[in-house]
Predict the 3D structure of the following.
Amino acid sequence: MEAYEFYATPENGVIVIPEQYRKKIKAGVKVIILEQIHDSVGKRSAKTNRKSDLLLAPTIATSGWKFSREAANER
């Protein structure tokens, strides 16, 4: 399987394959769509910032809790 990468803007659900790749494609293709999430200036969009907030590790306030090695290792 050969991979070709290019950027395109879909128009009415159609993505046009550039001419230089059309000549190389002899059979069917596997399509994977990765949405471009940066605006034209290259800054992160608000949509991206919201998604990254979901990736933050949760924190738990543990002040006042007592931990012991024996209790942690009990089964």
Summary: The mean pLDDT is 77. The two ends are 50 Å apart (CA to CA). Residues 1-75 form one domain.
